[in-house]
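During the no-cost extension, the postdoctoral fellow (Dr. R.K.) reprocessed legacy sequence entries with the updated structure-token encoder. One reprocessed record is reproduced below for audit purposes.
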Amino acid sequence: MTSILVVEDNLDLAANILDYMESCGHEADAAADGREALRLTGRHRYDAIVLDLALPGVDGLTVCRRLREAGDGTPVIMLTARGELEEKLAGIEHGADDYLVKPVALAELEARVRAQVRRARGEFTRTRLRVGELELDERTHEVVRAGRRVNLARADFLLLRRLMRDAPDVVTRGVLEEAVWGDEPPATDTLRAHIHRLRRAIDHPFTHPMLRTVHGVGYRLVAPDDAPA
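Re-encoded structure tokens follow.
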């Protein structure tokens, strides 16, 4: 049975989400603010967290960041009243795995939760991938470029894994979205926001960029030695 924490200060909405999740066979707890959310995650291990962005006191971005800093990789689906790219980027930068704009369709939210939980439970294999100076260990989730460790959120790790498996071929947007979100495609601009953060992590500290955009098609990963001068 999947255990879910719903962090939402709108008590009516929180009650509706809890009732729906429980009707789908999940266990669900609720927190009305960020401090309570951090207290509960410190005591219990959840399979997924539904996290409102605009919380009183400690906001959703801070909650997500503190979880990631503490090594908690629980999938986080962030909720917000607005859908601007800047907000999506902020949520993803702080470690969110998915993003939904209110008003939320409960069936879609539950489907997103299931998709994230499936990926979290099935992502550990014993394969090590390498593209040039970039290495990825699927068992430990360690990513290293040129001897320097690269820290990635779970969704970014899944994107990089898909790109490395197909490198140096182009991977379409649809294939990348399926690698992270399965049959429940994300909101507009979510993939672009994740790619933006992934590029910052694996390219910006280094001289030669590896993650390339193929406009109108998708993205590809190229070893520095194979990149055009």
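The helical segments are 11-23, 34-43, 60-69, 85-93, 106-122, 154-166, 173-181, 190-202. The first strand starts at residue 3 and ends at 7. The remaining legacy entries will be reprocessed before the final report is submitted.
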